[in-house]
Every structure is written in C-alpha cells, then in structure tokens.
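#struct-help
A.M.: can someone run this one for me? Single chain, 285 residues.
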Amino acid sequence: MLKFILDVLRGIVIGIANVIPGVSGGTMMVSMGVYDDIIGSINNLFKQFKKSILTLLPYVIGMLIGIVGFAKAIEMLFEKFPIPTALLFIGLIFGGIPMMWKRATKKKIDVLSVILFVLFFALVIGLQLLGNVQGADKSLDFSLAHMVIGLLLGVVAAATMIIPGVSGSMVMMVLGYYNTIIAAINLAVDSLVSVDFPGLFKAAGILAPFGIGVLVGIFAVAKLIHWLLKNHEAKTYCAILGLVVASPYPVYVNSGVTSVTAIAVIIGIITFAAGFFGALKLGEK
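D.P.: on it. Structure tokens below:
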C-alpha cells in the first residue's frame, strides 16, 4: 500500500511537470527512478496486461491528479514565487543525475557518447530559443482537418512527454498550440463541474483526437526507447543525461523571474534542497 501511495505521488510530480513549459515529465520519471518501469510496462501492456496495468495505474492516477488538480496551483506559485518554485523543480532534476550518471557510465564513455550528450544538450537549448520566438497561438475546432492536426499534435506531445529533458509543453508552445490545448482541458473540467454539455462537446472535439494521438505516440516511442535501453543502455543514458543537464535553463527562463531578492534566494535554496533530496528519496527502489 505504501508503494502504491508513493507511486501516486511520483505520478503527481510527473503530471504537473508535463503541463509546465520548460519542465519535462520524462526527466521527472528518470529523476525518481521509475522511467524503466513505466516504459517497460507500456511496451509490454498487451504481453503482460495485468502486471503492466498494476504498475501503471498509480502513476496514471497521480498524473491525472497533477494535471487537473495541481497545475493551476503550480502556475500560481511560478507567478507569485518564481525563484523558489523554479529551484524546486531544478532540485528535482538534479536529484536524479547521480543515478543517470551511474547508468551512463556502466561502460567506458567513448566519443559517440560524448557527441550524443552534446547534441541532446543543444536540442533542449534550441527548443527553448525557438519557444522564445514563437508566433501567435493557433486554434482548433470540430472539423476534419483540425481533428487530423489534433491527432498529429497528440503523437508529438506523447513523444516529447516521455523523452527525458524535452518539455512537451515547450514543444506545443513552439508549434503554437499550447494555450489552445490548455484552454480545452480547462473548458472540459469547468463544463463537467457545471454540467455544460455544449462546452463538453466542444472540448471533446479538440481533446478526443489529441488524446488518441497521445496513446499512439506513447506506444510508438515507448517501443523505440525500450529497444534503445535494452541494446544501447549506456549511450542512451548519455543522450538522456544531455537532455536533463540542459533542463534547468528552460525551467529558469520560463519561471518569470523579474527581480531577485535575498529572501527569495534563501527560500529557493531550501526548495532546491527539498526537491533534490525528494528526488533521491522517490528514486529509491
């Protein structure tokens, strides 16, 4: 029962991370030591259905709680207390690096491993720079063309959702659909609470194809990552390490910091330590 509760808590952290631009849900999975379990369970869902469902269930519950229940609160914290909140997530990220380093150095580090680290480090920085010059938000509605776009966006979102170091929200921002998807999620929740069926129908027209795309993308990318971890574990973790080490940059840039005060820095050091040791604790098997 304790493990189930801890896995739900891990899922909440992953869910929150997936809706905050610059924060990677995949990074949180790696930092908390559950990445292999989640990817393996997704990949073997139909081969070992009961075992995979039991493994994934608490994470899914936690992610839903994180996305629906805590995302707005975290956004408020970023707005009111940007430095402590950003340092909390940076602490969570850094707390997983010792484990990743151990996995990346299981074999002797060669030139290819270094190149992979540098390339994927640059990828995160590049996505952030592209996000800074994004164009106007694009809309989606209940039409065939936009349903196809929603499906493709779901595939992209799923891929970036489970690749450590790459923020799915940031990619959605670059493509210009982040606010549209978030607005649809909020519309669905508000319409459900107020029993507004027209609002639910409108939200479903956007979220249903997007959700189908997410499922397709998760299974496709999980198979690829599972193969890479099975056949090239050390090199794959070198690439993941590059993504993760670069992650604090977009987290800080997107935190909305406009001024730095001594009290904010002191509290930030405390939240960084809490995040760091929290990731170490949640990463324990």
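A.M.: thanks! The CA atoms of residues 192 and 229 lie 41 Å apart.
D.P.: also worth noting: The chain has a mean pLDDT of 79.
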